[in-house]
Amino acid sequence: MKKIRAKTSNRKYSIYVQRGLSRQAGRLIGRGLAGAQKALLVTNDRIYPLYETMIKQHLSQSAPEFYTHIIQDGEIYKSLDTARQIYDRLLENNFHRNDVIIAFGGGVIGDMAGYAAATYHRGLNLVQYPTTIIGQVDSSIGGKVAVNYQDIKNIIGTFYQPHLILMDPSLLGSLDQKEIVNGLGEVIKYGIVFDQKILEILENITSQKKGIAAIVDHRLFDQILYRCAKIKAVVVAKDEFDTGYRNLLNFGHTIGHALEKVSRLTHISHGRAISLGMLAALDISRQLGFIDGSLKERVLRLYQKIGLPAVIPELDVQAVVAATGFDKKFTAKKNKFVLLKGLNKPCFYFNLKEGIIINSIKENMD
Ligand code: GLY
After folding, report:
1. 80-92 and 107-119 are packed helices; what angle lies between their axes, rounded to 10 degrees?
2. Pocket test for ligand 1, best of 144, 228, 253, 329 (most atoms within 8 A of CB)
3. With 70 as the cut, is the pLDDT of residue 266 above it?
4. Ligand 1 centre and the CA of 133: distance in Å?
5. Which of 140, 189, 249 to mutate to test the pocket of ligand 1 (most atoms within 8 A of CB)?
6. Calpha distance 90→176 (Å, rounded)
7. Which of 134, 136, 138 for mutating ligand 1's site (highest number of atoms within 8 Å of CB)?
8. What is the pLDDT of residue 210?
9. φ/ψ (deg, to 5) at 70
10. Is the pLDDT of residue 184 over 90?
Protein backbone atom coordinates (compact mmCIF):
# COMPACT_ATOMS: atom_id res chain seq x y z
CA MET A 1 0.00 0.00 0.00
CA LYS A 2 1.35 3.41 -0.96
CA LYS A 3 1.59 5.93 1.83
CA ILE A 4 2.23 9.67 1.77
CA ARG A 5 3.13 11.50 4.98
CA ALA A 6 1.62 14.97 5.20
CA LYS A 7 3.27 17.41 7.60
CA THR A 8 1.44 20.45 8.90
CA SER A 9 1.96 22.83 11.81
CA ASN A 10 -0.04 20.88 14.36
CA ARG A 11 -0.45 17.49 12.77
CA LYS A 12 1.35 14.84 10.75
CA TYR A 13 -0.94 12.39 9.02
CA SER A 14 -0.89 9.53 6.54
CA ILE A 15 -2.54 9.38 3.15
CA TYR A 16 -3.02 5.77 2.02
CA VAL A 17 -3.52 5.19 -1.70
CA GLN A 18 -4.46 1.77 -3.01
CA ARG A 19 -7.02 0.30 -5.37
CA GLY A 20 -9.33 -1.87 -3.31
CA LEU A 21 -8.23 -0.29 -0.02
CA SER A 22 -11.90 -0.02 1.02
CA ARG A 23 -11.85 -3.65 2.15
CA GLN A 24 -9.34 -2.60 4.81
CA ALA A 25 -10.79 0.83 5.56
CA GLY A 26 -12.32 -0.06 8.92
CA ARG A 27 -9.10 -1.68 10.10
CA LEU A 28 -6.97 1.26 8.92
CA ILE A 29 -9.17 3.74 10.76
CA GLY A 30 -9.39 1.55 13.86
CA ARG A 31 -5.60 1.20 13.93
CA GLY A 32 -4.87 4.86 13.07
CA LEU A 33 -7.32 6.27 15.64
CA ALA A 34 -7.16 3.64 18.30
CA GLY A 35 -8.62 5.95 20.98
CA ALA A 36 -11.90 6.42 19.14
CA GLN A 37 -14.86 4.69 20.75
CA LYS A 38 -17.40 6.11 18.30
CA ALA A 39 -17.37 6.84 14.60
CA LEU A 40 -19.89 8.88 12.62
CA LEU A 41 -19.84 8.25 8.88
CA VAL A 42 -21.13 11.29 6.98
CA THR A 43 -22.13 10.58 3.40
CA ASN A 44 -24.91 11.38 0.95
CA ASP A 45 -27.95 9.61 -0.45
CA ARG A 46 -26.32 9.02 -3.84
CA ILE A 47 -23.16 7.41 -2.49
CA TYR A 48 -24.58 5.43 0.42
CA PRO A 49 -26.65 2.92 -1.66
CA LEU A 50 -23.63 2.29 -3.92
CA TYR A 51 -21.40 1.30 -1.02
CA GLU A 52 -23.85 0.12 1.61
CA THR A 53 -22.43 -3.43 1.67
CA MET A 54 -18.84 -2.23 1.94
CA ILE A 55 -19.81 0.23 4.68
CA LYS A 56 -21.61 -2.45 6.70
CA GLN A 57 -18.94 -5.12 6.20
CA HIS A 58 -15.74 -3.10 6.46
CA LEU A 59 -16.13 0.53 7.42
CA SER A 60 -18.30 -0.29 10.39
CA GLN A 61 -15.21 -1.84 12.02
CA SER A 62 -13.71 1.65 12.39
CA ALA A 63 -14.83 1.96 16.01
CA PRO A 64 -16.82 -0.08 18.55
CA GLU A 65 -19.84 2.20 18.04
CA PHE A 66 -20.55 3.10 14.43
CA TYR A 67 -23.22 5.57 13.26
CA THR A 68 -24.20 6.72 9.80
CA HIS A 69 -25.50 10.16 8.89
CA ILE A 70 -26.82 10.49 5.34
CA ILE A 71 -27.46 13.92 3.89
CA GLN A 72 -28.99 14.82 0.55
CA ASP A 73 -26.65 15.10 -2.41
CA GLY A 74 -25.94 18.58 -3.75
CA GLU A 75 -24.08 21.83 -3.20
CA ILE A 76 -27.15 23.46 -1.58
CA TYR A 77 -26.80 21.05 1.35
CA LYS A 78 -23.33 22.37 2.14
CA SER A 79 -24.92 24.65 4.68
CA LEU A 80 -24.93 25.63 8.33
CA ASP A 81 -28.24 23.84 8.63
CA THR A 82 -26.73 20.53 7.52
CA ALA A 83 -23.79 21.10 9.85
CA ARG A 84 -26.32 21.65 12.65
CA GLN A 85 -27.91 18.27 11.86
CA ILE A 86 -24.46 16.67 12.19
CA TYR A 87 -23.95 18.42 15.55
CA ASP A 88 -27.32 17.00 16.67
CA ARG A 89 -26.20 13.46 15.81
CA LEU A 90 -22.92 13.95 17.66
CA LEU A 91 -24.69 15.37 20.66
CA GLU A 92 -27.41 12.73 20.89
CA ASN A 93 -24.73 10.01 20.80
CA ASN A 94 -22.41 11.89 23.18
CA PHE A 95 -19.33 12.07 20.95
CA HIS A 96 -16.09 13.07 22.65
CA ARG A 97 -12.99 14.66 21.18
CA ASN A 98 -11.22 11.34 20.72
CA ASP A 99 -14.12 10.03 18.58
CA VAL A 100 -14.10 10.33 14.82
CA ILE A 101 -16.04 11.69 11.88
CA ILE A 102 -15.48 9.89 8.58
CA ALA A 103 -16.25 12.09 5.56
CA PHE A 104 -17.13 9.65 2.76
CA GLY A 105 -18.00 11.44 -0.47
CA GLY A 106 -16.99 14.30 -2.73
CA GLY A 107 -15.98 17.87 -1.95
CA VAL A 108 -19.31 18.86 -0.39
CA ILE A 109 -19.17 16.01 2.12
CA GLY A 110 -15.46 16.50 2.84
CA ASP A 111 -15.79 20.24 3.41
CA MET A 112 -18.95 20.06 5.46
CA ALA A 113 -18.21 17.03 7.61
CA GLY A 114 -14.72 18.51 8.05
CA TYR A 115 -16.25 21.77 9.23
CA ALA A 116 -18.43 19.92 11.74
CA ALA A 117 -15.39 17.94 12.95
CA ALA A 118 -13.35 21.14 13.32
CA THR A 119 -15.97 22.94 15.38
CA TYR A 120 -17.69 20.32 17.54
CA HIS A 121 -15.91 20.20 20.91
CA ARG A 122 -13.34 22.45 19.17
CA GLY A 123 -12.16 19.50 17.12
CA LEU A 124 -12.91 15.79 16.74
CA ASN A 125 -10.79 13.28 14.87
CA LEU A 126 -11.41 13.52 11.14
CA VAL A 127 -10.91 10.93 8.41
CA GLN A 128 -11.22 12.15 4.84
CA TYR A 129 -12.29 9.33 2.55
CA PRO A 130 -12.92 10.97 -0.84
CA THR A 131 -14.90 9.26 -3.60
CA THR A 132 -14.29 11.75 -6.45
CA ILE A 133 -11.18 12.69 -8.43
CA ILE A 134 -11.25 16.29 -7.18
CA GLY A 135 -11.68 15.00 -3.63
CA GLN A 136 -8.76 12.60 -3.99
CA VAL A 137 -6.28 14.90 -5.70
CA ASP A 138 -7.23 18.15 -4.04
CA SER A 139 -9.98 18.94 -1.57
CA SER A 140 -9.44 16.16 0.97
CA ILE A 141 -5.79 17.17 1.47
CA GLY A 142 -4.74 20.35 3.19
CA GLY A 143 -7.40 21.08 5.76
CA LYS A 144 -9.69 23.55 4.03
CA VAL A 145 -13.15 22.95 5.49
CA ALA A 146 -16.17 25.18 5.04
CA VAL A 147 -19.87 25.63 4.42
CA ASN A 148 -21.61 28.02 2.03
CA TYR A 149 -23.65 30.92 3.37
CA GLN A 150 -26.07 33.23 1.55
CA ASP A 151 -25.08 31.78 -1.82
CA ILE A 152 -21.39 32.46 -1.23
CA LYS A 153 -19.24 29.36 -1.53
CA ASN A 154 -16.99 28.40 1.38
CA ILE A 155 -17.46 31.76 3.09
CA ILE A 156 -17.65 30.23 6.59
CA GLY A 157 -14.80 27.89 7.28
CA THR A 158 -11.43 27.23 8.77
CA PHE A 159 -8.27 25.18 8.34
CA TYR A 160 -8.57 21.83 10.04
CA GLN A 161 -6.18 19.09 9.00
CA PRO A 162 -7.54 15.55 8.89
CA HIS A 163 -6.03 12.79 11.01
CA LEU A 164 -6.03 10.27 8.16
CA ILE A 165 -6.89 10.20 4.44
CA LEU A 166 -7.93 7.05 2.59
CA MET A 167 -7.89 6.89 -1.19
CA ASP A 168 -9.30 4.00 -3.14
CA PRO A 169 -9.09 4.64 -6.91
CA SER A 170 -11.67 1.91 -7.55
CA LEU A 171 -14.34 4.17 -6.00
CA LEU A 172 -14.01 6.46 -9.02
CA GLY A 173 -15.74 3.78 -11.09
CA SER A 174 -19.08 4.99 -9.74
CA LEU A 175 -18.65 8.56 -10.98
CA ASP A 176 -20.66 9.79 -13.91
CA GLN A 177 -18.89 10.94 -17.06
CA LYS A 178 -19.23 14.65 -16.28
CA GLU A 179 -17.63 14.28 -12.85
CA ILE A 180 -14.73 12.32 -14.34
CA VAL A 181 -14.16 14.89 -17.07
CA ASN A 182 -14.19 17.74 -14.53
CA GLY A 183 -11.78 15.85 -12.28
CA LEU A 184 -9.40 15.21 -15.17
CA GLY A 185 -9.21 18.98 -15.71
CA GLU A 186 -7.82 19.24 -12.17
CA VAL A 187 -5.34 16.43 -12.89
CA ILE A 188 -4.13 18.25 -16.03
CA LYS A 189 -3.55 21.34 -13.89
CA TYR A 190 -1.13 19.36 -11.68
CA GLY A 191 0.61 18.12 -14.84
CA ILE A 192 1.02 21.63 -16.26
CA VAL A 193 2.04 23.39 -13.06
CA PHE A 194 4.06 20.79 -11.15
CA ASP A 195 4.76 17.43 -12.76
CA GLN A 196 4.86 16.75 -16.49
CA LYS A 197 4.97 12.98 -15.83
CA ILE A 198 1.26 13.31 -15.00
CA LEU A 199 0.60 14.63 -18.51
CA GLU A 200 2.70 11.82 -20.00
CA ILE A 201 0.81 9.12 -18.12
CA LEU A 202 -2.55 10.65 -19.06
CA GLU A 203 -1.46 10.87 -22.71
CA ASN A 204 -0.40 7.24 -22.53
CA ILE A 205 -3.71 6.10 -21.03
CA THR A 206 -5.86 8.13 -23.43
CA SER A 207 -3.91 6.80 -26.42
CA GLN A 208 -4.74 3.20 -25.43
CA LYS A 209 -8.15 3.44 -23.86
CA LYS A 210 -11.44 4.40 -25.35
CA GLY A 211 -14.07 5.94 -23.16
CA ILE A 212 -13.89 8.13 -20.10
CA ALA A 213 -14.66 5.44 -17.53
CA ALA A 214 -11.77 3.35 -18.90
CA ILE A 215 -9.33 6.14 -18.02
CA VAL A 216 -9.99 6.01 -14.28
CA ASP A 217 -10.16 2.24 -14.42
CA HIS A 218 -6.63 2.01 -15.82
CA ARG A 219 -3.94 0.85 -13.38
CA LEU A 220 -1.70 3.72 -14.46
CA PHE A 221 -4.33 6.14 -13.25
CA ASP A 222 -3.44 5.15 -9.68
CA GLN A 223 0.03 6.58 -10.28
CA ILE A 224 -1.53 9.85 -11.39
CA LEU A 225 -3.63 10.04 -8.21
CA TYR A 226 -0.61 9.25 -6.07
CA ARG A 227 1.55 11.89 -7.77
CA CYS A 228 -1.15 14.56 -7.47
CA ALA A 229 -1.81 13.76 -3.80
CA LYS A 230 1.90 13.88 -3.05
CA ILE A 231 2.25 17.26 -4.74
CA LYS A 232 -0.72 18.61 -2.82
CA ALA A 233 0.79 17.40 0.47
CA VAL A 234 4.10 19.09 -0.35
CA VAL A 235 2.38 22.35 -1.34
CA VAL A 236 0.37 22.35 1.89
CA ALA A 237 3.49 21.63 3.96
CA LYS A 238 5.13 24.71 2.41
CA ASP A 239 2.17 27.05 2.85
CA GLU A 240 -0.53 25.52 5.02
CA PHE A 241 -2.57 28.72 5.39
CA ASP A 242 -2.59 29.70 1.72
CA THR A 243 -0.63 32.92 2.08
CA GLY A 244 1.55 32.54 -1.02
CA TYR A 245 2.96 29.35 -2.47
CA ARG A 246 -0.32 27.42 -2.14
CA ASN A 247 -1.88 29.99 -4.51
CA LEU A 248 -0.06 28.09 -7.29
CA LEU A 249 -2.90 25.56 -7.07
CA ASN A 250 -5.04 28.39 -8.37
CA PHE A 251 -3.63 28.15 -11.91
CA GLY A 252 -6.51 28.84 -14.32
CA HIS A 253 -8.83 29.83 -11.48
CA THR A 254 -8.80 33.63 -11.88
CA ILE A 255 -10.46 33.65 -15.28
CA GLY A 256 -12.10 30.27 -14.61
CA HIS A 257 -14.00 31.54 -11.58
CA ALA A 258 -14.95 34.70 -13.48
CA LEU A 259 -16.38 32.59 -16.34
CA GLU A 260 -18.31 30.53 -13.82
CA LYS A 261 -19.74 33.66 -12.24
CA VAL A 262 -20.68 35.44 -15.48
CA SER A 263 -22.15 32.31 -17.07
CA ARG A 264 -24.58 31.82 -14.18
CA LEU A 265 -27.59 31.49 -16.49
CA THR A 266 -26.03 29.33 -19.20
CA HIS A 267 -23.88 27.70 -16.52
CA ILE A 268 -20.37 26.46 -17.20
CA SER A 269 -19.54 23.84 -14.57
CA HIS A 270 -16.64 24.51 -12.20
CA GLY A 271 -14.34 21.92 -13.81
CA ARG A 272 -15.00 23.19 -17.33
CA ALA A 273 -14.63 26.82 -16.31
CA ILE A 274 -11.24 26.11 -14.72
CA SER A 275 -10.13 24.19 -17.81
CA LEU A 276 -11.01 27.21 -19.97
CA GLY A 277 -9.30 29.47 -17.44
CA MET A 278 -6.13 27.38 -17.86
CA LEU A 279 -6.23 27.97 -21.64
CA ALA A 280 -6.50 31.71 -20.99
CA ALA A 281 -3.59 31.55 -18.49
CA LEU A 282 -1.48 29.75 -21.09
CA ASP A 283 -2.33 32.47 -23.60
CA ILE A 284 -1.44 35.22 -21.13
CA SER A 285 1.91 33.52 -20.47
CA ARG A 286 2.50 33.40 -24.23
CA GLN A 287 1.49 37.04 -24.75
CA LEU A 288 4.04 38.04 -22.11
CA GLY A 289 6.70 36.09 -24.01
CA PHE A 290 7.17 33.48 -21.26
CA ILE A 291 6.20 30.44 -23.36
CA ASP A 292 5.39 29.61 -26.96
CA GLY A 293 2.11 28.08 -28.15
CA SER A 294 3.20 24.43 -28.08
CA LEU A 295 2.13 23.68 -24.51
CA LYS A 296 -1.38 24.96 -25.19
CA GLU A 297 -1.57 22.76 -28.30
CA ARG A 298 -0.51 19.77 -26.20
CA VAL A 299 -3.10 20.58 -23.55
CA LEU A 300 -5.80 21.01 -26.20
CA ARG A 301 -5.01 17.56 -27.62
CA LEU A 302 -5.66 16.10 -24.17
CA TYR A 303 -8.84 18.17 -23.76
CA GLN A 304 -10.12 16.81 -27.05
CA LYS A 305 -9.50 13.19 -26.04
CA ILE A 306 -11.10 13.71 -22.65
CA GLY A 307 -14.00 15.90 -23.73
CA LEU A 308 -13.01 19.11 -21.98
CA PRO A 309 -14.10 22.28 -23.78
CA ALA A 310 -11.66 24.15 -26.02
CA VAL A 311 -13.80 27.23 -26.59
CA ILE A 312 -15.22 29.85 -24.23
CA PRO A 313 -18.89 30.43 -25.04
CA GLU A 314 -20.00 33.93 -26.09
CA LEU A 315 -20.10 36.03 -22.91
CA ASP A 316 -19.73 39.71 -22.08
CA VAL A 317 -15.92 39.97 -21.96
CA GLN A 318 -15.94 43.16 -19.86
CA ALA A 319 -18.17 41.42 -17.32
CA VAL A 320 -15.69 38.51 -17.16
CA VAL A 321 -12.80 40.93 -16.60
CA ALA A 322 -14.78 42.72 -13.87
CA ALA A 323 -15.57 39.37 -12.24
CA THR A 324 -11.86 38.52 -11.99
CA GLY A 325 -11.78 41.31 -9.35
CA PHE A 326 -13.42 38.93 -6.85
CA ASP A 327 -10.36 36.66 -6.94
CA LYS A 328 -9.17 35.94 -3.40
CA LYS A 329 -5.54 36.52 -4.47
CA PHE A 330 -6.25 40.11 -5.52
CA THR A 331 -5.99 43.14 -3.25
CA ALA A 332 -7.72 46.49 -3.75
CA LYS A 333 -4.58 47.75 -5.49
CA LYS A 334 -3.09 44.72 -7.22
CA ASN A 335 -4.24 41.83 -9.35
CA LYS A 336 -2.30 38.56 -9.10
CA PHE A 337 -2.21 35.80 -11.70
CA VAL A 338 -0.60 32.36 -11.67
CA LEU A 339 1.25 32.03 -14.97
CA LEU A 340 3.92 29.83 -16.48
CA LYS A 341 7.49 30.50 -17.50
CA GLY A 342 7.61 27.02 -18.98
CA LEU A 343 6.16 23.57 -18.33
CA ASN A 344 6.26 23.03 -14.54
CA LYS A 345 7.70 26.52 -14.07
CA PRO A 346 4.86 28.43 -12.44
CA CYS A 347 5.20 32.05 -11.38
CA PHE A 348 3.09 34.84 -9.93
CA TYR A 349 2.46 37.95 -11.99
CA PHE A 350 1.11 41.17 -10.47
CA ASN A 351 -0.72 44.07 -12.09
CA LEU A 352 -1.43 42.35 -15.37
CA LYS A 353 -2.78 44.85 -17.93
CA GLU A 354 -6.47 44.61 -18.70
CA GLY A 355 -5.82 44.48 -22.47
CA ILE A 356 -3.89 41.22 -22.06
CA ILE A 357 -6.69 39.69 -19.99
CA ILE A 358 -9.25 40.70 -22.63
CA ASN A 359 -7.14 39.22 -25.45
CA SER A 360 -6.72 35.95 -23.58
CA ILE A 361 -10.50 35.62 -23.25
CA LYS A 362 -11.30 36.67 -26.81
CA GLU A 363 -8.66 34.36 -28.28
CA ASN A 364 -10.46 31.41 -26.75
CA MET A 365 -13.94 32.41 -27.88
CA ASP A 366 -15.54 31.11 -31.07
N1 GLY B 1 -8.03 23.68 -3.48
C2 GLY B 1 -6.98 24.59 -3.34
C3 GLY B 1 -6.31 24.51 -2.01
O4 GLY B 1 -6.50 23.56 -1.28
O5 GLY B 1 -5.57 25.38 -1.68
Report:
1. 60
2. 144
3. no
4. 14
5. 249
6. 32
7. 138
8. 78
9. -105, 125
10. yes
Query: Alpha carbon of 198 to those of 185, 202, 203, 231, 282: distances in Å?
Result: 12, 6, 9, 11, 18
Residue-level pLDDT at 25: 97
> What distance, in Å, lies between the first and last C-alpha atoms of the chain?
47
Residue minimizing CA distance to atom 3 of ligand 1: 249
- Mind listing the pLDDT tens digit for each residue in 327-341? 888 988 899 999 999
Point out the ligand 1 atom lying closest to the alpha carbon of residue 249.
Answer: 2
147's CB contacts (< 8 A; 6+ apart) are: 78, 79, 80, 82, 83, 111, 112, 115, 154, 156, 157
Which residues line ligand 1 at a C-beta cut-off of 6 Å?
Answer: 138-139, 142, 144, 242, 246, 249
Phi and psi of 266, rounded to 5°?
-80, -25
CA distance 29 to 9: 22
Nearest residue (CA) to ligand 1, atom 2: 249
Quick one: which atom of ligand 1 is closest to the CA of 232?
4
Encode pLDDT of 129-145 as tens digits. 999 999 999 999 999 99
The pLDDT value given to residue 152: 86
Q: Tell me which residue of 90, 104, 107 sits closest to 38, measured CA to CA.
A: 90
- What is the C-alpha separation between 232 and 138, in angstroms, rounded? 7
pLDDT computed for residue 151 by the predictor: 81
| pLDDT tens-digit map of 89-117 | 999 999 999 999 999 999 999 999 999 99
